[in-house]
Each structure stands twice: as C-alpha cells, then as structure tokens.
Design a protein that fits this description.
The chain is an alpha/beta fold. Helix content is 40%, strand content 16%. The chain is built from eleven helices and ten strands. The chain has helices at 3-21, 24-27, 40-46, 70-79, 98-105, 122-130, 144-156, 195-202, 220-228, 238-241, 246-259, and strands at 50-54, 57-58, 62-63, 84-88, 112-115, 134-138, 160-165, 180-184, 211-214, 233-236. Strands 1-4-5-6-7-8-9-10 form an eight-stranded parallel beta barrel, surrounded by six helices. The protein is globular. The termini are far apart.
C-alpha cells in the first residue's frame, strides 16, 4: 500500500465521521458561506505568481516546522506579494486543521487554497464553510468523471478548482471548465522530483490553460527555469517552511526575483 493509499483510506474514515456529526445544512450556516470568494486565477496574473504554502509536516519529510504561528507566516506571505496561500487541512499526515483556514480567513484577503484530499462532495461544503476560495482535486485519487462532477459542484459554491496531475494518463482528467492545472513535480508514489517531466506535461495541455508548478521547487534556479518554460503559478511550501523564520525566507525570495 502506497502512502497515497493510506491517506485516502484514512480520509474516507474522517469524512464519514464528519458527515455523521455535522450536516451539510449546518455547514451552510457558516458566516463564510455567503461571502464572495477571491479569484486565484486573477491574482496569479496580478502578483508574484507564487502560491505560498503553510505546512507543518509531510509524510516524506516528517516535521518541517511546527514552531511558527500560521498568522505570522501567512500575513508575511500576503504582505510581500503572494498570489495565493495554500493551507493544509489534513491532520494525520500533514499536521493541518480546518481551524487554520477559519482563523486566517478573518484577517487575510489573499485567495486561500484548501489543500487536502477531496474525495467526497461533503468536503466541498466544508471548504466553503471554512472560508476557502480554491480547492485541490488530485487526479491520482479521482476518476475523470469525479473531477468533472466535483468541478461543477465547486463552481456552484463559488470555489475555483486547481486540478493536480503528474502523469500523461492523468491528462484525461482535464476539462475546459477547470480553472487551473497544477503539475506536481514530485511523484506521490515514490516522492521523486523531475522538473523536466512537468514541463513535458505542461506542453501537452491546451495553450491557454493556466498552469501551476507544484512541489520540489528548491531554489531560485528552479523557479526561474519553470517560469521560463511558461508556468503561470508556483506552489511552494517546504522551501520557506524549512526555515526557522519562513516569513523572512519568503521576503528574501521575493526581493531576489524582483531584482532578477
């Protein structure tokens, strides 16, 4: 059983528990449910293109940084020009929580991506309830028909969709209604990183598709290479979070790319 298999198995248990305890109607009773969501598509074009991630840990790296507060880090991401902010909401494998987004939403205007393993329509109502603007659909754990169904539900709720792919086979999950396509530089099964593989996949997408390079961006050189190859967005978390002061690391990175 791969790590992804373990995560999905646990996610099914979590969703079933949540559905048994909080109804969709109760989720709709959130103060955030009626808010007008912010557009990550627009923000990618207007700001740095970086979707900066707050991530405490991961299955492949273990604890990355569990000492800093979400607001301290995310407010710096916003102040220094992040186009979007990705927040992990999976607890068991990534140390995240719903509360992170709900607390940040009150003070942060930048588009927030709920980064989780979305396998049930219930989770989309959760995302709207907690104040997210964008959701992630991972092709590796969904069928093309599920991606289409979940995309339409997301749009009904005012949420944008970032579809994540990694293989040529997963290109069949793409549909024109999808807002953005993320290409994971890291293989979720063995966690190896290959930037050239991502560029090859990007070149097989329709020309006007907004593309996001995800994971494994470890340097200014990696960022510059992917930008040169035409990526519109760059989802980066570990690069900043591995520092004792992620806010400072992000500021220095932005200053560097602004000068280049």
């Amino acid at each position: 059983m791969t790590i992804l298999d373990k995560i999905i198995s646990r996610k099914k248990e979590e969703v079933n528990f949540s559905k048994a305890n909080v109804s969709v109607e109760e989720l709709k009773d959130s103060a955030f449910f009626e808010r007008k969501t912010a557009s990550l598509k627009s923000s990618l074009k207007e700001k740095s293109g970086i979707i900066a991630e707050f991530k405490r840990q991961s299955p492949s790296k273990g604890v990355i940084n569990d000492k800093v507060s979400p607001f301290e880090v995310v407010s710096a991401y916003e102040n220094f020009g992040a186009s979007g902010i990705s927040i992990l909401t999976d607890t068991d494998f990534f140390g995240g929580s719903f509360k992170d987004i709900m607390d940040l939403r009150i003070q942060i205007k930048t588009p927030l991506l709920r980064k989780d393993f979305m396998i049930d329509e219930y989770q989309f109502y959760e995302a709207k309830n907690m104040g997210a603007d964008v959701i992630l659909l991972i092709a590796a754990c969904l069928s093309p028909s599920q991606v289409l169904e979940f995309t339409h539900l997301s749009h009904e709720l005012g949420l944008e969709v970032l579809l994540e792919i990694h293989t040529e086979e997963e290109l069949q999950h793409f549909h024109p209604d999808i807002d953005l396509v993320g290409i994971n530089n890291r293989n979720l099964k063995d966690f190896k990183v290959d930037l050239q593989h991502s560029v090859r996949l990007k070149n097989q997408l329709p020309e006007q598709t907004l593309s996001v390079a995800e994971s494994g961006i470890y340097s200014i050189e990696d960022f510059s290479y992917l930008k040169e190859k035409g990526f519109d967005g760059f989802l980066m978390g570990e690069y900043f979070m591995k520092n004792e002061d992620p806010a400072k690391a992000f500021k220095e990175f932005i200053n560097h790319i602004n000068l280049s």
